[in-house]
Amino acid sequence: MAELKTKKNSASVIAFLKSLHDEQKSKDSLELNRVYTQITGKKATMWGTAIVGYDMYHYQSTRSAQKGDWPLAAFSPRVQSLTLYILYGPIKNSPLLKKLGKYKASGGCLHIKRLSDVDLTVLKQMIKASYLWSKKTYGTK
Fold first, then answer.
1. Domains plus CATH for the chain?
2. To pair with 14 at 20 to 30 A between CA atoms, which of 36, 53, 82, 128?
């Protein structure tokens, strides 16, 4: 089995977020970092080269022998959008999505072009609900 490439590391989250070439994406990512830190009560850590994660759990795949650690809450400032890994559990089909604003969804990801496109209060509710569900479902390491 291949070893997971995306692992928790000691790279600076703030340096990464400030180094983004798109100034607005950098500002939005720094704001998301503040929001996630406030909601989770956890310090951000880098996972791989582009995922900012909070808290952690250990998983064992039911479909393969794959296992490893993964953040309970995370986002990534991708080239096309801010990608939030929150569409799980109660959030996947939440009525909050109708109130959120402009976004795209795929798999367990919510894609937002910029924070000004969404209602930040609703987004915070979604992040919190997703984090609490993940923590209850998977526990922490």
1. 8-138 (3.90.1150)
2. 128
